[in-house]
Amino acid sequence: MPTETINNQDKNKLHYEKLYSGFSINNTLYWITHLNQFLPAVTSTETSWFGMYMFNFQDRLKGKKILEMGCGDCTNAAVMAALGAEVYANDIASSSGEIVKKLNLNYKFDYPITFIEGDFLHNKLPSNYFDFVVGKAFLHHLTILVEQHFLKETARLLKQNGEARFFEPAINNRFLDEIRWYVPVTGRPSKFNKSLFEEWKKNDPHPDRSFSSQHFENAGMELFKEVSTHPVGAMERLHRILPKNSFNKKYRQWALKNEKYIPRNINRSIARSQLIIYKVPKQ
After folding, report:
1. 134 and 166 in contact (C-beta within 8 Å)?
2. Paired sense of beta strands 86-91 and 65-69, if any
3. Could you report the per-residue pLDDT of 158-204, keeping only the tens digit for each?
4. Which pTM does this prediction carry?
5. C-alpha distances out from residue 14 to 40, 50, 95, 96, 212, Å
6. What whole-number distance in Å separates Cα of residue 20 and Cα of residue 99?
7. Separate counts of helices (H) and strands (E) for the chain
8. Is 60 helix (H, G, I), strand (E, B) or coil?
9. Are residues 259 and 235 in contact, defined by beta-carbon separation less than 8 angstroms?
10. Of 29, 210, 223, 257, which residue is most buried, by most CB within 10 angstroms?
11. Positive or negative torsion for Cα 239, 18, 198, 2
């Protein structure tokens, strides 16, 4: 495997071991205990939750076998398990496994979450086993070469009538992509501040790669018979320049609800995120 790929994997492991070490599950436990309030709230205002749970995803989970790649702080794994799914959660960081242990000890899931530690490409899971394979803001952490291997493994593990769902950034407009680097967000300085930006970039675990919808469509068509991408966040992205108050939340709800009325070619061009769906693995 190329040195660049190995270095990227190592950088991700170090970054997320540190990030999730000693992670408190108190919020997660509160959210899954109050799922009837939590899930409608986040799926109407938070881009990643809105995207991942599009098309009534939550209503299709009970009793299903689900594999989550890059489970991170395990909030999504816990939500899916609380909805009645049999969840297998994988992450390169062993600290995510400690979170899973705490969740299983403190909440009575129908099926305790199973943690699969380490490099997913070395898993020993049976073929045609999962109803869903999901990744919530995960693929963009991989180099394109590693992504190819992950998608091949996804096709192997997925049942013939199963579904893979990945929520990822979307960059289909180079002009908007360049502008976003100059708008500071939590954890990332503006490109106007050259020294701080360069320091952030050096430590950033994300590789330089394509996030275009066309890339994910082409990658999927190599391995699946049905491929679709769904833009998310075309108007919602403007909330970052609005005051952080109650209007901001109402705006996000309105934007996510009404973006579907934007003509698809425009929506695809300006959306900041996308839901990628792969179905019917090629034999």
Report:
1. yes
2. parallel
3. 999 999 999 999 999 888 878 888 888 888 888 888 888 888 788 87
4. 0.89
5. 34, 29, 11, 12, 27
6. 8
7. 12, 7
8. helix
9. yes
10. 223
11. negative
Share of residues in the chain with pLDDT > 70 (%): 95
Bridge partners of residue 105, in order along the sequence: none
Give the Cα separation of 47 and 15 in Å (integer).
Answer: 23
Task: Tell how far CA 259 is from the center of its chain.
Answer: 20
What is the rounded CA–CA span in Å between residue 264 and residue 31? 34
**With contact defined as beta carbons under 8 Å apart, do 233 and 272 qualify?**
yes
Number of neighbouring beta carbons within 10 Å of residue 265? 9
| Closest C-alpha among 50, 67, 81 to residue 164 | 67
From the CB of residue 263, how many other CB atoms can be counted at a distance below 10 Å? 8
Return the structure tokens found at 82: 């609380």
Condensed to tens digits (0 to 9), the pLDDT of residues 265-276 reads 999 999 999 999
Please give the Cα distance from 78 to 129 (Å, whole number): 20
CB 144 within 8 A of CB 124: no
- Show me where the domains of the chain are located: 3-281
CATH superfamily to which 3-281 belongs: Vaccinia Virus protein VP39 (3.40.50.150)
User: Could you count the other beta carbons within 10 Å of the beta carbon of residue 19?
Assistant: 14
Torsion angle of the four alpha carbons 174, 207, 130, 53, in this order, in degrees rounded to the nearest 10: -40
221, two tokens: 């068509």
Q: What tokens appear for 258 in the block?
A: 């009404």
Question: In this structure, what token pair is assigned to residue 280?
Answer: 């019917």
- In this structure, is the dihedral angle defined by the CA atoms of residues 41, 47, 49 and 52, taken in order, positive or negative? positive
Q: Retrieve residue 262's tokens.
A: 């934007």
Nearest-angstrom CA–CA distance, 66 and 133: 6
What secondary structure, in 3-state letters, does 214-273 show? HHHHHHHHCCEEEEEEEEECCCHHHHHHCCCCHHHHHHHHHHHHHHHHCCHHHHHHHCCE
